[in-house]
Design a protein that fits this description.
There is one protein chain. It is globular, with a radius of gyration of 17 Å. α2 packs antiparallel against α3, α3 packs antiparallel against α4 and α5 runs antiparallel to α6. It is built from nine helices and no strands. By secondary structure, it is mostly helical. The chain has one domain.
């Protein structure tokens, strides 16, 4: 898991965990939200490295996140986590581990296709509009923002399972929407503050992941 980590990676990782822990203590964060953040950061860092075991941690994180989302009446996020991302992450964990055992190294990176771009563009409009309307009928908080976040996360998860490097652009966008959704819950209740704070290291992870995977893709194709 830590075989290709550099000193800078360890410093970033532990600084991120300390940031979440300190903010969680100061704002008396809900303990499940705290676990979501710490497990998610760990998963994100090793996924950035294209490590095949990252999805084991993602499975744990998304299960906890589904509960926290339902607890806060973000129905779209809860449904997304429990009924789409959890099965997808289980599938991805099995697929990545099997491929990793057959291949040299863990990474086999691909580039997004024109067909995938068209499908995702259409899906963005349909999901954001249609699902947002359904969530509004269910009295979900921030229904259309929730629906857009759902699309971005679904798209990122799909591209990740396919090992497509452009997944990181969707993760970056989702992090921004994700931050806005949970910032809206702040007020007298600060129990979910770690879900906001975690996006500081997430932004770095996602940008670094984009750079790292682009590099892996170029190196793989330079050898062909």
């Amino acid at each position: 898991m830590f075989k290709d980590w550099k000193i800078g990676d360890f410093i970033f990782y532990f600084a991120s965990i300390i940031l979440v822990v300190v903010s969680g203590i100061i704002f008396k964060a809900y303990w499940v939200s705290f676990l979501v953040s710490t497990v998610g950061i760990t998963a994100g860092v090793i996924h950035m490295k294209a490590n095949k075991y990252s999805y084991i941690l993602y499975i744990i994180q998304i299960s906890l996140y589904a509960y926290v989302s339902w607890r806060n009446r973000f129905i779209g996020e809860a449904v997304l986590a429990a009924f789409y991302l959890l099965p997808l992450y289980i599938y991805s964990a099995i697929k990545w581990i099997k491929l990793g055992n057959k291949e040299k190294g863990d990474a086999q990176i691909f580039k997004i296709t024109k067909k995938q771009i068209i499908i995702l563009a259409v899906a963005c409009v349909v999901v954001t509009g249609g699902y947002g309307y359904v969530l509004s009928l269910l009295k979900s908080n921030l229904p259309y923002a929730n629906a857009l976040g759902t699309f971005l996360s679904v798209a990122a998860g799909y591209l990740s399972a396919k090992r497509v490097k452009e997944q990181w652009l969707f993760w970056i966008s989702y992090s921004l929407i994700f931050s806005g959704i949970w910032i809206s819950t702040l007020g007298s209740d600060t129990s979910n503050v770690t879900l906001i704070v975690q996006n500081i290291p997430y932004l770095y992870i996602n940008i670094s992941g984009l750079i790292k995977w682009n590099k892996l893709y170029k190196e793989a194709h330079a050898e062909v």
